[in-house]
Amino acid sequence: MLEIKNLHASVNGNEILTGVHLKVNAGEVHAIMGPNGSGKSTLAQVLAGREAYEVTAGEVRYNGKDLLEMSPEDRAREGIFLAFQYPVEIPGVSNTYFLKAALNSVRKYRGLAELDAVDFLAMVKQKMGILEMDKTLLSRPVNEGFSGGEKKRNEIFQMAVLDPKLAILDETDSGLDIDALRIVADGVNKLRTKENAVVVVTHYQRLLNYIVPDVVHVLVEGRIVKSGPKELALELEERGYDWLKEEEQVKA
Amino acid sequence: MVEKAAKPAGERQGAQIEQYLSAFRSFERGLNGESASPIHAVRKEAIAHFASTGFPTTHDEEWRFTDVQPIARAPYAAGTPGTVSAADIARWTFAGLDANRLVFVDGEFSERFSTVRSVPSGGAIMSLARALTSGDAAALRHTARHARYDQDAFTALNTGFLRDGAFVHIPDGVSWDEPIYVLYLATGRTVPFVAHPRNLFVAGRNSRCFVVERYAALAENSYFTNAVTEVVLAEGAVVEHDKVQEESLNAFHVGSAHVSMAAKSNYTSNSFAMGGAIVRNNITSVMEGQGVECTLNGLSLSTGRQHIDNHTTIDHATAHCNSHELYKSILDGSSRGVFNGKIFVRKDAQKTDAKQTNKTLLLSDLATIDTKPQLEIFADDVKCTHGATVGYLDAEAVFYLRSRGIGIELARDILTYAFASDVTGRVKIEPVRAALDRLILKQLHEGRRLEGL
Fold this sequence. Notes:
The complex is a heterodimer of chains A (252) and B (453).
Chain A: E1 2-11, E2 14-24, E3 29-33, H1 40-48, E4 54-62, E5 65-66, H2 72-77, E6 80-83, E7 90-94, H3 95-109, H4 117-130, E8 141-142, H5 148-162, E9 166-170, H6 178-191, E10 197-201, E11 215-220, E12 223-228, H7 231-239, H8 242-251
Parallel strand pairs in A: 3-10, 3-11, 6-9, 9-10
Antiparallel strand pairs in A: 1-2, 1-4, 4-5, 7-8, 11-12
Helix pairs in contact in A: 5-6
Chain B: H1 2-5, H2 7-29, H3 38-53, H4 69-73, H5 86-91, E1 100-105, E2 108-109, E3 124-127, H6 128-133, H7 137-142, H8 153-160, E4 166-170, E5 175-186, E6 194-195, E7 198-203, E8 208-217, E9 224-233, E10 238-246, E11 252-261, E12 266-273, E13 278-287, E14 293-302, E15 307-316, E16 322-331, E17 336-345, E18 353-362, E19 368-377, E20 383-391, H9 395-402, H10 408-424, H11 430-443
Parallel strand pairs in B: 1-5, 4-7, 5-8, 6-9, 7-9, 8-10, 9-11, 10-12, 11-13, 12-14, 13-15, 14-16, 15-17, 16-18, 17-19, 18-20
Antiparallel strand pairs in B: 1-2, 3-4
Helix pairs in contact in B: 2-3, 3-8, 9-10, 10-11
């Protein structure tokens, strides 16, 4: 589904990604871990099409297409979803309107009819149930005045509505208490199918107790230095990242 | 006397001023017996004042950013108003607004298209000319008593030609919840003309009313609207005053509102400026008694080469008064905006609470804004805050919307609309609010896809 080869990206002339290789197949869950500043969020944002990052080398194929050639909106319409680490507040735009505009843009691109108000609302209410969300959030402006936990839940709720093929969760666990973490993780698990894939970007192992990965990758200084089964996450939790950094330096 | 006083300014703007003096002489001849009235003495003083000062220039601090020379040097001619149809009036009536209506066509009162079905007992909803000639006590008492013609050339000019406009008087204790709609409609008349609308809204003690003032055009012709509106709130009166300015893009519009607020009164102005080539709005509100609430909201939308200038003054002349001010501008093309917000807190105005916010959204690299909050505080126990921001659309927010599949154009339009709706949402009259929403959507090219926001 997703194939990243030798990806280099920089922001304001600083190279953040220094040669990432990654392959994600449908039905898989991949975790990307790593110390602060290793480039985890940059990788997530580059995949979503954030223009602030400049891709200087490498390629990304997504379902056979050149992902880097696509606009952010077309990537979303093709089924990529980024759950933001810091969801943006949009005063004056209600959650309902925002979701409807997004869903209908995606549906139109896929050649589907726009949903009418009744069908839309029924669908939205069902998805809200999965995330145990308060219905009053629908009429409130997007993320405005939401608590940290509500914002993260709202991200996964949007994901549920848009039904992506590849979901990238960028530090979705940060700022969540244990109950909220469980609800969000349950939500993600309920949305998993054999046809879609999830990339979980996280600093801590905690979330991976709930969203169990098939592969864990460790990103250090802009490249993946180690990949392994889910037990690698536990080892990282115990030993930290320094040993991997040292290994890198030895290799260099 | 008029000619004598004209000399100093005449050296600079002779022909420009003479155009108005000559128009004044023919205006006087048309007044017949009325020229002996006390109002006419005021007119003569006002026109003499205008003749002595002429039009302001960019050397005047109040007009630093707005050059009115294109207004001053344009030739205008007298003439009869153009024609409008019932369909035109219907088009310029807010859908769903059940209101008493005073209509002016090319500045002249239209008996035919005005509909006043009900009037509060002891009050009035009528043309000011009729109120003055019939000796209405409130009209005679307040006309030209609040708008100072000795401080502003355009107010002087308007006062010189003071004859007609909308007059509303809500008596003491009456809550008049049916909005009063005042429409100034310019026809496509080809000869440029000047209109000097003069409105007077008087709200009695503990009364309440809603007035909507709208300036619109049937065609993109050039003309000059020079309006003055006096609003008088007696003790405990509550007034919502909405102004929707959609003049022709080739028209000039100078509109000055002078608001006098007695103790415990509550005045809200929602001012929307979208039309006009050169536009200047002045609002001067004076708190004459304690416990006043004054709210000034404004939104300007401009594009092309439009120039929209909003000057507001809130005068905290007495203690225990609150003012809330929110002015926003959205500038596209190479349009230019000006905001000047004065707040005076006089020596005795303790416990004043004043808040001013001015926000500008630039949609184009060529658009510019000059913004100047101006707080002058002479009391010591007060709370006054002000803030001004100027910026482009938030790139983070645009990306957020795009990352959900929303195209870049629609994403920008959604965010622009949201910026504006913060002001339109404050209008209490639902049909006006809905119409404003549609107007803003119309200006955003993907507007039709935004309906239902």
